[in-house]
Amino acid sequence: MSKETESPQEATPESTSTKPEFTCIREGSAPKLRDQTQLIHYAIGKSNDVDVIQLVSNTNNGLFSDELIRIESIQQCLSGRGDLATFTSRIFHPLFRKSSNNNAGFLGAVLKHEGILKTADKKQFKHQLAINPDDILMYLTAADIEDKSN
């Protein structure tokens, strides 16, 4: 029996199990919330004209999902929270299809590093908004800004 292989020209998005197209605008590395000597690496870009963020890798242990998360979904998740409202990264769990417990915390670390969130009540796992939720998309897709967490 011979194995038939599909030529690249015959492959269609419906017939392949490849990841969605992703165009990177910029990449970054954020300190993890638990141990700031360890990093979570991420990319911000576009997929099918939708602004997305992706967790790419990390410097130590910790399973996570590398799925593309719509920045608009992050914005919706954070909308309606007052400037003084405190919350944990658990609010990000619904944004992920895969169920690794690290996903939400790693995304929280990235958003903190990007200056979207800040530490609340001097507790490393509690957050507050650092900017207006309406500005999140503009803030994350600004290609010329390296580290906004200062």
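[next item in queue]
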Amino acid sequence: MGVTEPGLFGLLLPMRRVFLGSMIGGAAGGAIALGFGAQAYALVGNSGLPGLPGLAGPAFGWTVASLAVAFVGSLVAVLLLGFDESPLTRTAAAATPAATPVAAPVDEHAAVTAEGSGPRVASPVAGTVVPLADVADPAFARGTMGKGVAVLPSDGEIVSPVSGTVVTVFGTKHVVGLRSDDGVEVLVHVGIDTVNLGGTGFTAHVADGDRVTVGQRLLTVDLPAVAATHDTTTVVVITNSTAFAGVEPVATGTVAAAAALLAVETLEHALEATR
């Protein structure tokens, strides 16, 4: 996973106003760069300040101006839009109805039913459960992206771990973000550093905004091809973990696709348990 992905998945996507503000600032800076002929004169691997020498040329002043406008414009846009729409605020409100003791319809994947503590998140793929701390990506292993678990897949069929809405399908098709009907925001990240494959070996069967149910196919992965060059460990994290009292794995060893993988305890249930 690239160094920008923790910021993208951990901040920009969950906090949509910040994402929109960043897009506005970036668009303003990009317009200046395009309008005044800013361009790169060398292929440099570094971006940001270390990459500035590669942009030196007749329009270098406008290049610097475009970067400044992008930075300041994003800041101003975020301040104007507000960034109070945090995962904690949104999900706490969305999860309130889930605490009401109303019998829910039985899902066809019975393994995902809860025992009263809160929502369950299913495994998106069949395979062997791997503790999050053992994942070969520090951003996940340290819990930076949220609490969760991983699965070393035995096949390439990636299914929805929740019933809800597809928030995003990453352009390289190795990442799917979903929001469950219970307000749980789930990130399914297939493989380690698979962003470098540019989508090769991945086929998406859903798009942003699609309605999905537990067990519905999201992606098909050419597992042998991907495994030939990359670790295929598939990470499942709750990106708004702080909106809940707890997120705990409920499966060990081998797990079937759509079988219960994580238990999520709501704040409401935790408060009731202390009374």
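[queue empty]
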